Amino acid sequence: MSPMRHAVVSAGAGAAAGLALHSWGAAGACLVTGVMLDLDHFFDYFIDQGPKLDLMEFFDLCERSAFKKCSVLFHAYEWWPLFFLWFSVYGSQPVALGIFTGFALHMAFDQFTNALASPFTYFISYRLYHGFEMRRVFLPSAAGRRRTSSR
Known about the structure:
With 151 residues, the chain is mostly helical. The chain has one domain (3-137). It contains 8 helices and no strands.
């Protein structure tokens, strides 16, 4: 899912969380987490392209799923038990609930809108088992897509 769509979904969810929990912190945490979860794509970019940063190239490679490797370490269901551990130890604090809501929505939208080779793609252990190879964890139709509109 595109960063803009994640921002729209996270802003709406953040507003709802903020109103429901009476907390600007929960609203902001949901928005920031829902969008910033995608920062892990930069790890894949640097592994693939080396120590340079070309944002146009970065967004193009992301859009086409053209990285050779796909670690996306923040995109992982293995993080869920840590959230539940936090909630069991510290309780359901509004900011923590906002973070969890942003994370959960981001993961859900990616799970159902991206071309995954398996429902297990967003488990780090699954990606590790497949050597983090993009072609093995995402469908071939996702790799090599070209942008049709100009920027």
